[in-house]
Specification:
With 196 residues, the protein is mainly beta. The protein is 12% helix and 51% strand. It starts with a helix and ends with a strand. The relative contact order is 0.18.
């Protein structure tokens, strides 16, 4: 057997037996099967709300998840707490000033493994025109073939932010001491996303 033929056969065998490497996939968030909710302390209980208009992309590196990335946006005007008067107040300058700052955003800068299927995702979060670095815990819920082809993925995160860090200062003092609203807001995001 000639040296060239031997080399060609060896190269072909190497290619055929090499492990399959999955390329990075870009997932678009499926709005219908995802949610963005929050809660904040009000007097002695919690007020819960949601945002109806949001979008995002997740670039998943299957070989090394820490090289993955996410971008996420929320339309502030889509806030919904099941009370029209309260929602309009939240849209006003006392809170989110949606006429001036209609969109919030998060763009990741780093992703570190924190557990078997969990990661700490750091990035820049912008709310009411203020951008600050934050780190949020993310659970990767899994990947599966989609009903219409492609791959589906699931993710979940829950974290707290201090609203005053972003210029949301409004509050009202109580006669007995303390204030109507708490400063910390618990945010929970559940995502189902698809890659074609």
């Amino acid at each position: 057997m000639s040296r060239k033929l031997s080399f060609a056969l060896s190269f072909a065998l190497l290619v055929l037996t090499a492990p399959v490497v999955r390329a990075a996939e870009t997932f678009d968030i499926d709005h219908v099967h995802s949610s963005v909710t929050f809660k904040i302390r009000h007097l002695v209980s919690n007020v819960v709300g949601r945002f109806g208009d949001f979008a995002g992309k997740i670039a998943v590196d299957h070989e090394d998840m820490t090289k993955s990335a996410v971008e996420f946006t929320i339309q502030a005007t889509s806030i919904d707490t099941d009370n029209e008067n309260r929602d309009n107040h939240l849209r006003s300058g006392d809170f989110f000033a949606v006429d001036s700052f209609p969109q919030w955003s998060f763009k990741s800068t780093k992703m570190e493994k924190a557990g078997l299927n969990s990661y700490n995702v750091s990035g820049d979060f912008t709310l009411r025109g203020v951008t600050k670095p934050i780190t949020v815990p993310v659970d990767v819920l899994g990947f599966t073939p989609g009903p219409n082809g492609g791959t589906m993925a699931g993710f979940e995160t829950s974290f707290k932010i201090n609203r005053k860090d972003y210029g949301v200062q409004w509050n009202k003092a109580l006669d007995a001491g303390g204030f109507i609203l708490g400063d910390e807001v618990q945010v929970t995001i559940n995502v189902e996303a698809g890659a074609k």
